[in-house]
Amino acid sequence: MALRAWSKRHPLGLLALVAVIAIAVVDHFAASFTGILALGGLALATGALAWHRPQRLAALLACVAASYALVHQVRLLETRDHPLRAILWEGGGELRAKVWGTLQQEDGTQRLILHLTKLEFQDSSEPWETQAELLVRGRVPLPLPAAAMTLNGMLRLPLAPLNPGEFDPGDNSVRKGLAAEFFPERGRFPKVLPSEAQSVPWTERSRQWISERLAIGLEEDTVTIGAMRAMILGATDEADPQVEEAFRNSGTLHVFAVSGLHVGLVAAVGWFLLRPLGFRRPVIVMLMIPLVFGYAAITGWRPSAARAAMMISAVLLSALSRRTVGPQNSLGAAALALLAWDSHQLFQPGFQLSFCVLWALSLFTPLILQRFEGWMGLDPFLPPTVATWWQRTSAKVRTRIGTTFAVSLAAWLGSLPLMLWHFNTMTPVALIANCALVPLSLLAIGSACVGLSAGAVLGTAVQSLLNNATWFFVRLMINSATFFASLPGASFHLGTPQLVEKHATVELRVLRLSDGAAASHLRTAGNDWLLDVGDKENFAGVVSPYLRSQGVDHLQGLFLSHNDVRHIGGVEAALAFGQPEFVAAPGMEPWRYDTKRSGMRHLLEEVLPSMPQHEHRRLWRGDVINLAPTKGLSARAVVLYPSPNDFQDSADDRSLVVRFEFGRWKILWCNDAGFVTEKKLLERREELRCHVLLRDQHRDPLCAQPEFLLAAHPQVIVTNNTPRFIEERMPPHLEGFCKTHDILLIPTHEAGSVRLAIEPEEVRVSTYLGGDDIKVLTDPDGVAEQRSTQGGVAPSSTLPE
Question: Which of the chain's termini has less CB crowding within 10 Å, N or C?
Answer without folding.
Answer: N
